[in-house]
Amino acid sequence: MTFTLARAADGISQLLRPVYYYLPRKFRAPGTYWNTLEFLHGSQYWDEQRIIEFQLSQLRAMLRHCARNVPYYRRLFRKIGFDPDFLKQLSDISCVPTLDKDTVRDNIHDFLAENIPASQRVYCTTGGTMGVPLGFYNLKDSGWRERAFTEMQASRVGFGGDQLRAILRGAVIRGKKHWTFDQRQHAYLFSNFHMTGAQVTVYARIMREKKVPFFHVYPSSALDFARLLQQERVEPPSFRAVLAGSENFYPGQRQRIEAFYGCRVYAWYGHSENMVLAGECETSHDYHVSPEYGFVEVLKADGSKASAEGDTGELVGTSFHNLAMPLVRYRTADWAVLGPEKCACGRKHKLLREVRGRWHQEMLVGKFNNRISMTALNVHSDIFDRVNQFQFFQNEIGKVELRLVPKTDFSQSDAAAILATFSEKMGDSVDLQLVPMDKLPLTERGKFRFIVQELKGLDAPQSPECEPIA
Ligand SMILES: [Zn+2]
Predict the structure, then answer these.
(1) What pLDDT does residue 12 have?
(2) What's the gap in Å between 344 CA and the centre of ligand 1?
């Protein structure tokens, strides 16, 4: 019954959609969601041996699928003489070379599984992390599976899928009041792009009146909201927890958020490519890597495995779920510091003390002195498909150049789509101009900045330097 209704949503007319979203979730969510939740309830306290057996069987199944159905891996496995049936222990995966983003970008159709019809997959993008867009495919029901995984993690601080949230995470909200209720997510959405003192006072009043228990944010948006409320001398709404993802935490930020809002911050790490998911638990701030989600390695700069607490390495992931476009030992370009061996919560998960993702807390400054985080500007559409690299440049409040290196097939309609997308997001608070360039400048030290800001006399957050992507 539930499955039929959920499937029906794909073909439902625009007219009936609002009615559909008023249905309780138990009627909307498909089997993928419920089965995943049920499975995760049973698996979260597995012992080490059970986890290893599970991961080994998942990994072997995924590698067999790659060998049989994915042209890139058929060729690669033949070339290196790799047979998935010979995978006896997890470390045997190191026979397969790691995979970088450029290889995926240059060979995207070779990674598509031939036995998955186009109708069962969806196209997604990473939205241009570090200024280099990457498109990839996932299974159509991946969103519901993802939701089950993330809800299961957040349930560790009392969040259940049906509870109210206030979301301040880059939603585009049409209309003049800059906030709305989204029946589909059962959440109040607030615009990041209109955060002035007067506007956040209204936001806080709504959150209080509606008694919203959870605040779902980017760390930078929680801090910016706090800054403006303090400036207006407005008390923060009362939350049970602040759910913070998608950006790095910098030293002291978690403490500042917890002190201001008077509740626990719950952080997690995930990425668009869906190979690594890790969240905190009830008792600790270490990120627990979900062993049911994918096979995750932490590799040091020399390629060897990080194994001791405090070791730093790149997160390298193999999905257990994306049959449409399987990626094996995919280098995420995100870095982690290994945590302790064990956690008091009893879960036998790999622990990460810290994750340094691609998303830094860079901010543009709008005409109303409002701050717009780069994370909020992230787009998941295909507008950057014909762009090699891009970078934001600002030397005047309210004015921003989007500098981009176009591919040869870039056209006026691409430019129009990019401008339309950002105009819709930022409204009238920023004048945006597209500036095509042959290449983007690096810093004196040869690093790439996603946002170059030369605003005078303003304490604009400093944009960190990133390693350039070749
Ligand atoms: Zn724990």
Answers:
(1) 47
(2) 6
